[in-house]
Design brief:
Radius of gyration: 18 Å
Strand content: over 45%
Length: 188
């Protein structure tokens, strides 16, 4: 009986893995290749110009780079651009993506993420999972992950995946998954 509950818990856990919806960006995406990932390097506006919500609809609510990457820093709210640079790590075939948030060419905040190249985009290793209660019994888990790439006009896009799973005594499952994309105009 103990093994049954363990297998059931593992099946529920692996059922909720992060999954990006490619339909949100398939019509306006430059598919990167490993040889030209450096095309993503450049400066982009800090505030987005087009937001595509979970229903594949354009939304009026535009988000900043910090909001899309879940960065909580009050000093960057009035920033005007972000510099992105991807550097290849030949040892493990991964990338390091550096983000520098600027205001009037003055550095306000800088951070890095490791990333994996997958299907023409860089999947950032910013996956976070927060659980409350006893997951799948009397509680749940929330997961978040991002990936970046280029639009057809070589603008930056950030796609987020947000997943919320839970249950009440393994009987009533509750949860949802949301994908959304924000696009940022290239400055340089």
């Amino acid at each position: 009986m103990k093994n049954f509950f363990l297998i059931l818990l593992l099946a529920l856990f692996f059922n909720s893995c992060v999954s990006f919806d490619r339909k949100l960006i398939k019509d306006d995406m430059t598919t990167l290749k490993k040889e030209n990932v450096s095309l993503i390097n450049g400066e982009f506006e800090f505030k987005g110009y087009e937001h595509i919500n979970a229903g594949n609809q354009k939304s009026d609510r535009l988000r900043t780079v910090a909001e899309m990457l879940n960065i909580k820093n009050p000093n960057i709210s009035e920033s005007d651009k972000v510099s992105v640079k991807a550097v290849s790590n030949l040892k493990d075939k991964s990338y390091e993506v550096q983000f520098m948030i600027l205001k009037n060419d003055s550095l306000k905040y800088s951070f890095k993420y490791d990333a994996k190249f997958k299907k023409g985009v860089l999947v950032l290793k910013n996956h976070t999972v927060k659980c409350h209660g006893i997951p799948y019994l009397l509680g749940g888990c929330r997961g978040f992950k991002s990936r970046i790439g280029l639009t057809g006009k070589n603008d930056l896009f950030i796609q987020d995946y947000y997943n919320n799973d839970g249950a009440f005594l393994l009987i009533m499952g509750s949860g949802y998954s949301i994908n959304y994309v924000e696009k940022y105009k290239r400055i340089q």
